[in-house]
Write a structure and sequence with these properties.
This is Pentapeptide repeat-containing protein. This protein is low in regular secondary structure. The protein is built from one helix and two strands, in the order H-E-E.
Length: 168
């Protein structure tokens, strides 16, 4: 993956919404950037600052967001299938109706995040901080919550079949 600069990212986002595969945006400050509706497959956003960034309805499968700061980010209705969000800060993020099938959110901070009606089948939420997160109507079939802090999280009407490690 070839690394790019913030200026290059701005240039890429001008005009039409490009489809990008395999680009390296690691370590950049992309706070508030709008990636809505874009295809960003197998991208690298590791250690990137994405505070209040917009990814709604974006295709982000197999993308790496490890250790990124995504506080307040909008990922609603996005496809994050098999994405890596380990140790990512997703406080107050909107992940409602997102597809997180097979995603890894190990040790992620999801305090006050909205995951309403999200698909988290087979997702790894081990050691995640889930205080005050909402999983209303979410499909958590086969998800792993081993060592996660779920105190204050809401699981109303969520599907909890074959969930691991969730203290009820």
């Amino acid at each position: 993956m070839a690394s790019v600069s913030v200026a290059q990212v701005r240039e890429m986002l001008r005009g039409e919404r490009p489809h990008m595969v395999g680009k390296d945006f690691s370590g950049l400050d992309l706070d508030g950037f709008d990636f809505s509706g874009m295809t960003l497959h197998r991208m690298n956003f590791k250690d990137t600052s994405l505070v209040n960034a917009k990814f709604n309805k974006a295709f982000l499968s197999e993308t790496c967001f490890d250790r990124a700061d995504m506080t307040g980010a909008d990922l609603s209705e996005s496809n994050l299938k098999n994405a890596q969000l380990n140790r990512t800060c997703l406080r107050n993020a909107n992940l409602s109706k997102a597809n997180l099938t097979g995603a890894s959110l190990y040790d992620a901070d999801l305090k006050k995040a909205s995951l309403s009606f999200a698909n988290l089948k087979q997702a790894n939420l081990g050691a995640a901080e889930l205080g005050a997160a909402s999983f209303f109507g979410a499909d958590l079939t086969g998800a792993d919550f081993t060592a996660a802090n779920t105190l204050g999280a809401s699981f109303n009407k969520a599907r909890l079949d074959k969930v691991k490690g969730l203290r009820k």
